[in-house]
Each structure stands twice: as C-alpha cells, then as structure tokens.
Design goal:
With 427 residues, this protein is α/β, with parallel strands linked by helices. Helix content is 47%, strand content 14%. β2 (90-94), α6 and β3 (111-115) form a beta-alpha-beta unit.
Length: 427
Amino acid sequence: MIARRLYRLALWLVFPLIWLYLLKRSQKQPAYRNFWLERLGYYSLAMQQKFIQSNTSIKPIWLHAVSVGEMRASAPVIAALRQQYPTRSFLLTCMTPTGRETAQELFGDFATIVFLPYDYPSAIRRFLRTFKPQCGVVMETEIWPSLIHECADAGVPLVLANARLSEKSYLGYRKALCLIRPAMARWTQVLAQSPADAERLALLGAITPQVMGSVKFDNQPDEAQIELGQRWRAKFGARATVLLASSRDGEEAELLAQWSTLFPQNAPLLIIVPRHPQRFDVVASLIENSGLHLLRRSQWQDDSLVDADVLLGDSMGEMTAWFSCADITIMGGSLLPFGSQNFIEACAVGCPVLLGTHTYNFAAASEAAIAAGAAWQAPNLAELWPEIPRLLSDSSRQQQMRTAGKTFAQAHRGATDLLVKSLGIYL
C-alpha cells in the first residue's frame, strides 16, 4: 500500500511534465495536441452519446493496444471475437496518435476508439464508469498498476494477453517489485507468448501464467498488398532488392556507411522503411548526404520505373507490400539495441530475413525462425554486412529461406483461438 501511495504521489509530481512532453512530441507530430482530456478520462458528450446508443444493454469488449504494431497484431483477435460474439460492441484504446489512426483505419467502421487515460486512479475510474466494459484485454505487456487495481476493484476482468517480457524488461520491473508484484497478482488471467516469458511474468507476481503463443503469427498477409508489392517489383527491372524494414534511429546510418563498399558497382535497389513516420525527413536527409540518389514513395507513381539508388518508404500501412517486393529483408530494431521489430510477416510472405544481434523483444520467435531456416542472425554488425551480397548471389539459398519462412509462419498459428476460448468465461 505504501508503494502505491508513493507511486500516486510521483504521478502527481510529474503531472506538469506530461503536458510538456506532449507539446514537445507535437512539434513533429501535431496529432499529439489532440484529445488531451481523454488522457485524463474525460470524453466528449458526442462520444459518450454515440457509445450509449450503440451499447444499450450489452457491455462492450474492451481491447487495449498501445500503438501501431500492437493494434495491427490485434486484428485477428478482433475478427475472431466479432465472429464469436456478433452482438457485442467493441471499445479499442491506445496511447499514441499513430495507434489511434491505425485503429480508425482498420476498425473505425464498427468500434469506438479512444485514448486510454494515464495511470491516475481517478482517470481510470472515469474511463470505467463511462464505457462499462464487460472485460478488458491488454495486448503485449503494459503493466500499469492503477489500471490493474481499479479494474479489479470494479469487478472488470482484465486479461494480459500475447504477453512478452524480455530479461532486460524483467530486471527493470524488479527494481520496483514492491509496486509491481501486488498489481501483477490482480490480473484476472495472464497469457504469455513463450514459456520463458511466462516464467519471468510469474517471478514478477503473476499467478499461474499460461502460454498461448503469439497472435502475430495469425495475421494473414493482405493479398491486395502482396499483389501491390509484386507490381512494384516489376518496376525495379532486373535489379536485386534489399529492404531495411522498420528501421530505428541510427540503423540507417550504419547501413548507408557500408553500402558503397558492399556494392561498388551494380548495386541492388535499397529500400528503407523507417519505423516511425516522424523520422521520414531525417532519413531522407541521411540518404541524400550519403551521395545516393533518393526517391521517396510519396513522390513515386506506381506505374513508373524506379530510377534511384534508394527508395524511401515514407508511407503507412504498406509493409506487406514492401516485404513482398524484396529479395531479402534486414530487420530493423535488431541492428542496434532496440530489441527488433516484427519480422514474422516477412517470413509469412516468403521473404528471407537477416537479423542483427538484438532480438530480445522476439527472442522465442527469432530462435524458432533461425532453427527453421527462415532467418539468419549475425553475431555482430561486422559479420552482417558481407552476408547481404552473399545471400543475394545464392538464389538456391534464397528459395530455401522463402519456403522455410512460409512453413515457419504457418506452423506457429493458433494463438488467437486459444485467447478467444480463454475469454469465453468472461463473456
């Protein structure tokens, strides 16, 4: 109890800094200036009336996904729940403007989409009173003590699903164990991606966590996006294509510094798709400063040939198409210590994957993909770079990795079904 009181005090002490943070973020992403009251649990009258009209007597299913990746990963879960419970309404919450935009794009025609309040007890209570969810599902690993305690006190079942916890994150949470352990014990259910994740979650205080696998395997690639990628590929001519996917700050510079040395002549087309849209212009400047000819996706017409050294993917929602047009993918987030971004979709469409050293966010998946022959991991960056031309020159190995990737992705599906069955007792 003392730890919770100190936590609440700390939240109030940093209260002014939250709005300064949002203002700073809004300099690059103006959408951060919107819906501030929702972050304190206040929702517009129009939003409340819309929600009440669509939820007269049946309480909604609430699903929280913090940002873009988690929201997209939730798609098969939401689809399965809609099929299983067609009379239920859906409430989706997120924390970032891009997550909200993604939710609106994918689910806006049927779901209510709002920001989840910050972890102030009074704000969480206002949220629960407004929407009265039947149950809540928190995707990935979002541990907010006030949220967990307030849901338990209000009798709202709250499930932590698709949960992963790296050793690094576990050690971080251990520093505040007196705060985290009581909260972890109040999850209604905890469903982990792997046995190692379940073990670490149990050490934090979760009661009998179970293993469900990852719903990211259940996200079927969009056929229209695959066809788009194949049409793009035809516009690249005979050139090989290397994709740096979902790259993080510093990774583009590392690759660009090596590119001319790796390919002094007849270089393949390099495609760079940054993880965060606010970095598009920064990455464009990096490419131009490296002396390479840049073409931005936003300035490229699909029906024209690509005459450039580097194609910058400054668009949203086209990652499947990028994976589908590439000969190999270098997975962003794994080159520098960011823990890796999601490479499962690349495998699912049959694109060979090269991983850097840092894959702790996808530890189980990366081990399985490497064992299956769908991915290759470098022990360090110095050994990653020469692997790019080696793999490009070995068409037989590329084909083996394409086949292995599709088989690997297919073999690990089924987490969504387990999750929906687990939620049945609350619905």
